[in-house]
């Protein structure tokens, strides 16, 4: 399987995992769609980047959090309570994406 296709599939899975609680909470549709595409593209970036001096197991969480910082700034302006949840999700999903990319071999 092509690495880009593999990372897109992982991105779809990560996006769905992120939006399930949002759908259950009946959050606005634009927020849900935005979060889905955010994790879809973050997953592609995580699985196709190699940052020197960062261990492979830490890379996904670092990249996931770094790419979520603009969203944290935007959301934090109006809802400070959700910042730790969003940051935790970014680290957790980024780490899981990185682990999936490491342990699931792509030929």
Task: Give a short summary of the structure.
The protein is mainly alpha-helical and 107 residues long.
Summarize the helices and strands and which ones pair or pack.
Elements: H1 3-24, H2 29-47, H3 56-76, H4 83-103
Helix pairs in contact: 1-2, 1-4, 2-3, 2-4, 3-4
Keywords: Membrane, Transmembrane, Transmembrane helix
Transmembrane segments: 6-23, 30-48, 54-73, 85-104
Structure explained in plain terms:
This protein is an all-alpha fold. It has one domain. Helices cover about 80% and strands about 0% of the residues. It has 4 helices and no strands. The radius of gyration is 14 Å and the shape is globular. The mean pLDDT is about 90.
The biggest beta sheet reads: none
Shape: globular
Number of domains: 1
Estimated structural class: mainly alpha
Helix content: over 70%
**Total of DSSP H or I helical runs spanning 4+ residues:** 4
Using only CA atoms, what is the Rg? Answer: 14 Å
How far apart are the termini? 6 Å
Percent of residues in β-strands: under 5%
Provide the residue-averaged pLDDT: 92
Low-confidence runs of at least 5 consecutive residues:
none
H/E series, N to C?
Answer: HHHH
Number of strands: 0
Name some characteristics of this structure.
107 residues; mainly alpha; 78% helix; globular
């Amino acid at each position: 399987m092509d690495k880009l296709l593999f990372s897109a599939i992982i991105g779809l899975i990560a996006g769905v995992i992120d939006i399930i609680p949002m759908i259950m909470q009946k959050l606005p549709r634009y927020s849900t769609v935005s979060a889905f595409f955010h994790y879809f593209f973050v997953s592609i970036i995580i699985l196709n980047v190699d940052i020197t001096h960062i261990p492979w197991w830490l890379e996904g969480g670092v990249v996931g959090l770094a790419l979520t910082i603009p969203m944290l700034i935007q959301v934090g302006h109006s809802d400070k309570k959700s910042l730790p949840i969003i940051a935790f999700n970014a680290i957790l999903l980024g780490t899981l994406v990185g682990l999936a990319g490491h342990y699931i071999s792509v030929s």
